[in-house]
Structure formats: C-alpha cells, structure tokens
Amino acid sequence: MTLTTSFNGSTVSHQTFVLVGIPGMQERNSWVAFPLCLLYILTLFGNLTILFVIKTEQSLHEPMYFFLSILACSDLGLAMSTMPTMLGVYWFDAREISFSACLTQMFFIHSFGAVESSILVAMAVDRFIAIRNPLRYTSLLPNTVIVKIGIAILSRTCCLLLPIPFLIKRLPFCRSNVLSHSYCLHQDVMHLACADITVNIVYGLIVVISTSGLDVVVILVSYVLILQTVLSITSHRGRLKALNTCISHVCAILIFYIPMIGVTVVHRFGRHLSPIVHMMMANVYIAVPPVLNPIVYSVKTKQIRQRICKMFQ
Question: What is the CB neighbour count within 10 angstroms for residue 137?
Fold first, then answer.
C-alpha cells in the first residue's frame, strides 16, 4: 500500500516505516540482539511448557489454570507478533516495515495487551470466589462459564481495538517515517501524521480507560473483598494459606502493569532522558512480562512445579 498526500505543492509517498534500535548507535544493535533472542526462546519454552502441563495434568483442569492457559496464549501471541521484527532490527539491521504490516502488528500488540489485562481481572475474580466460597468454587465457575468469559474478553478486545488500524489508515503521512521503537504502536505512528489526530487521541484514551483503567479498578475491588474475607478467617494458618494462593497473581499484575506505567511515564515526562532509556523501557515492556509469567507460576504453584520436575527427571 502506498500513502500519498500533497504537501507544499509536492506529492510525498510513504510505503514503509523505519523501525529504530539503539538510537544513534546502530552499529551496537547486535549487543541487544542476543539478550532479545534469549528472551524470545525462554518465552516460547516457558509458556508452551505451561500449556503442556495444564493440558496433560488432570488435577490442573480447574478455572484458575484455564485462565492461566489463556494468559500463556496471550504472552505467546505478543511475543510472536513483536519479536521477529525486533530481532530483525537488532540482528540484521532490517529496519523497514511496510505500512500494512505495521498496522497489523499494531493491532495485535494492543489486542494481546488488552486480553492480558482482562485475564488478570478474571483471575482476580477467580481468586475471590476460591477464597470466599471454596466448597462451591468449581460449581460457580464451570467450564461453560470459563468459555463465556473467554468469549467476552475476545469480543471486548476486538470491538475496542479493531477501529484503531482504520483510524491510522485514514491519516496522511508526509513527514518523517521513522518510528521511536523496534515495533509499531498506535501512539507512535499517529504522531507522524501531518493531519489533525484529535480523533485518534480521544479514541485511544477511551480504549485505555475501557480496558486498563476499568480493569485496575475491578482488580483493586476484588482484592479489597479478598482481604475482607481473609481477615474474617479465625485461623492464622488459614489466613496465610488463603493469601498464598494470591501471590502468583499479584506478581503477574505487577509484572504487567509496572512496565506499562514505566513506559507511559517515560514517554510523558522523560523527554529529557537519553534515547537509550526510552529504548530499554520499550523493550522491557514488550519482552519481559511474557518471560516472567511462566517462571512465577512455575515457582509459586506447587502442582505445576511438581509436574515440570517430573518432566525433566
């Protein structure tokens, strides 16, 4: 696809965007390539292992682990939609990406992020039900309910994120075609347009509020209710046991939201910082959470840890 527009009497065409590795130090991109490749391999291995263990271990066929499976699929999707272009930039200096490919990558990055945020909400509600009504846990969350929750998550994601590529597609691009990262993001691409982007800004804000903003509120409310329930347990050991079931989920929440907040703060208030800081934060935001999630759940979940140990004995 070719983007054309008339600017100062001349026609300018952008067929591609240019991705960026280490700003101003392209000759050192290979320094980042090996760690990224290692993270990519660990992401694939870790999340595929989680999916295999949950599928083959009958005792793990419970709501909590079904949600964990969806989380692993989301992490795999995010890694596979970003890592090939990132490795291309850092390892082979393949920095050009077509407009259509950029739009596609943008959609999947934001979509998998929204799915992951939604799954964290579902897991928070799951933990509340498990602690509040442990005897009715599986009856309150049968497989049919899990499927409906999954469909609702995908439906919300598609409805909110599908318009974004079309909002970008309508814009004329007659300025620089150099992006700020080694992958495509909506907020990055739209600022290269030479037209009014108010609609994109407003819709982007609506999407953030409707996904991450709403999800954070629901998660906080869920954990307030969980703490109330835990404090009502008379046994000290019972309280610790109940809280221990939430540790993995709390870690997953921190792993997901801290890099997201960090990238947002750096973009908004860190214009004076070195471009390398922006590059590192952007790479951490994309590459680190999919690696850490399976590690956290493997270490903190006894059933998964035991099953993995049996696999490698």
Answer: 16
Instruction: Write the CB contacts of 279 (distance below 8 Å, at least 6 apart in sequence).
Output: 20, 21, 22, 23, 181, 182
CA-based Rg of the chain, rounded to a whole angstrom? 22
List, as one string, the DSSP characters of 233-258.
---HHHHHHHHHTTHHHHHHHHHHHH
- Tokens 């509020």 sit on residue: 209
Q: pLDDT tens across 43-65, in order?
A: 999 999 999 999 998 888 889 99
Q: Which of 76, 80, 140 is nearest to 294 (CA)?
A: 76
- For 122, other C-beta atoms within 10 Å of its C-beta total 24
Q: What is the DSSP string of 87-116?
A: HHHHHH---EEEHHHHHHHHHHHHHHHHHH
Beta-bridged to residue 11, according to DSSP, are 6
Is residue 303 within 8 A of residue 59, CB to CB? The reply is yes
Q: How many C-beta atoms surround the C-beta of residue 150 within 10 A?
A: 18
The string of pLDDT tens digits covering residues 231-281 is 988 888 888 988 888 999 999 999 999 988 888 787 777 667 777 787 888
Taking the C-alpha atoms of residue 197 and residue 200, their distance in angstroms, rounded to an integer, is: 5
Q: Specify which residues 17 forms β-bridges with.
A: 97
Q: Which residues have a Cβ under 8 Å from the Cβ of 240 and sit 6 or more positions away?
A: none
Q: Which residues pair with 5 in a beta bridge?
A: 12
Give the pLDDT confidence of 81-98 residue by residue, as tens digits: 998 899 888 888 888 999
The structure tokens listed for 282 are 């952007």
Contact present, 77 and 108 (Cβ < 8 Å): yes
The b-or-e profile of 189-199 (16+ CB within 10 A means b, else e) is bbebbeeebee
Two tokens at 61?
Answer: 């066929």
Residue with tokens 């590059």: 279
Dist. CA 54–CA 308, nearest whole Å: 10
Give bridge partners of residue 143 from the DSSP assignment: none
